[in-house]
From TrEMBL:
Classification lineage: Eukaryota, Sar, Stramenopiles, Oomycota, Saprolegniomycetes
Domain (PPM-type phosphatase) ranges: 58-409
Domain of life the protein comes from: Eukaryota
InterPro entries in UniProt: PP2C, PPM-type-like_dom_sf, PPM-type_phosphatase-like_dom
PANTHER family: GM14286P, PROTEIN PHOSPHATASE 2C
Name recorded for this polypeptide: Aste57867_5811 protein
Example GO molecular function: protein serine/threonine phosphatase activity
SUPFAM superfamilies (UniProt xref): PP2C-like (SSF81606)
Length: 410
């Protein structure tokens, strides 16, 4: 469904929605976006466990599509006395996130079984999670290389930012490769609600990642190309600096077709031109751990902020995930607002709704006639109008797939 602000526009959105400002929360008083069941979610789950497992007594999750098909995946898996929760932000397609979703948890279990004697050691658990990420990456690489060598070139540019949280007894270990984010909702010594980051965003816009890449690839002036402060790309092509997949950025054999087909295949040259000194993108996750206490109330896992390479500035881009439009503190306040009223099942959906409302309130979008930009304008397009856009090109111009998982602790 097209949004006709002017007759020749494909889509033009930006303006006032349910909320013209970020949520305002003070203790139990929280001004959040109203929910009128406008959004049609791709997938929603809410479950209360028969008994707490690793302090988790229930969870809430929601995924809202922009792409068609949705490129995000998530899973909450309870295995005896252990809980695994994963959120995957696919890019370039859904295939890598689907593969990782099917295999990462099982690979993690296998690695931790080999470390059974060290299972109470958080460092050993973290190493097991790292190995599982690399096992999953290597198995995927072996499956995709034959397809690439047959000329299926797109498989070298599909990837997934990957977050996995492991909980056992009072131990929380978070492994992250990419710009999915984990935030712990906790209270301080004075009983004040606060957000504790449990991951670091791996994105080319951050100074630390720019510095690391420049140090590792000192003779490449195009190691990070920025279209705006919020839109920086490794070798001009990818924002996250860690992910599973994206093999053109990691292995020479995925950067050009074999000689036997390259000469006859259109576009058979290098996908990433010289200078080319991979790997640029890392599959090994960063790991953080935390001992859960009675002050810890919930863990939020969600998409972080990336920008489509088709868009060149913040003034003409939409949201690409939870943390693009909602801060850590705001997310924690919104979840607390619903949990304190016994509405745990609504928490993940409410975070997604806030993202879409803020997107409508804060951004302006480019209107196009076929092949030509004709106007940039601000309208008064509410969330219902944005939600009416069909998943695919139209909706993806406004925001990306947005997925949230909230684990609640007893």
């Amino acid at each position: 469904m097209k949004l006709g602000v002017i007759a020749t526009c494909v889509v033009c959105a930006a303006a006032t929605a349910w909320a013209a400002a970020p949520p305002s929360c003070d203790g139990d008083q929280c001004s959040v976006v109203a929910h009128d069941e406008i959004l049609s979610f791709h997938r929603v789950e809410s479950l209360t466990l028969p008994r707490p497992v690793a302090r988790v007594h229930r969870y809430s999750s929601a995924s809202y599509s922009a792409n068609d098909p949705n490129e995000d995946r998530f899973v909450v898996h309870v295995d005896g006395d252990t809980v695994y929760a994963s959120v995957l932000d696919g890019h370039g397609g859904w295939q890598v996130s689907e593969y990782v979703n099917q295999h990462l948890v099982n690979n993690t279990k296998a690695r931790l079984r080999n470390r059974a004697q060290d299972i109470s050691n958080t460092e050993a658990i973290g190493e097991g999670l790292e190995e599982a990420f690399l096992d999953t990456e290597d198995a995927l690489r072996q499956k995709l290389l034959p397809a690439f060598e047959l000329g299926f070139g797109q498989v070298n540019r599909v990837g997934a930012c990957t977050m996995l949280a492991y909980l056992k007894e009072d131990t929380l270990v978070v492994a992250n490769a990419g710009d999915v984010r984990a935030v712990l909702g906790t209270t301080d010594a004075k009983g004040q609600l606060m957000a504790k980051a449990m991951s670091t965003d791996h994105n080319a816009k951050h100074a630390t990642e720019k510095a690391r890449l420049a140090a590792e690839h000192p003779n490449e002036s195009n190691i990070v190309v920025c279209q705006s402060p919020q839109a920086c790309y490794v070798k001009g092509g990818l924002q996250p600096t860690r992910a599973l997949g994206d093999f053109a950025f990691k292995y020479p054999e995925f950067n050009s077709f074999p000689a036997s087909i390259a000469s006859s295949h259109r576009g058979g040259g290098r996908f990433i031109p010289d200078p080319y000194t991979p790997p640029y993108i890392l599959a090994r996750p960063e790991v953080q751990s935390h001992v859960l206490t009675a002050n810890d109330h919930f863990l939020v896992l969600g998409m972080s902020s990336t920008v489509s390479p088709l868009i060149t500035s913040r003034s003409t881009t939409g949201s690409d995930g939870l943390w693009d439009d909602v801060t850590n503190d705001e997310a924690v306040a919104i979840v607390h607002h619903y949990a304190s009223r016994g509405q745990h099942a609504r928490a993940a959906q409410a975070l997604v709704e806030q993202v879409i409302a803020n997107t409508a309130a804060e951004y302006q979008y480019v209107c196009e006639s076929p092949g030509q930009v004709i106007a940039t304008m601000r309208g008064r397009v509410n969330t219902a109008r944005i939600a009416s856009l069909s998943p695919g090109r139209d909706r993806r111009r406004v925001h990306d797939d947005t997925t949230v998982v909230v684990l609640f602790f007893s």
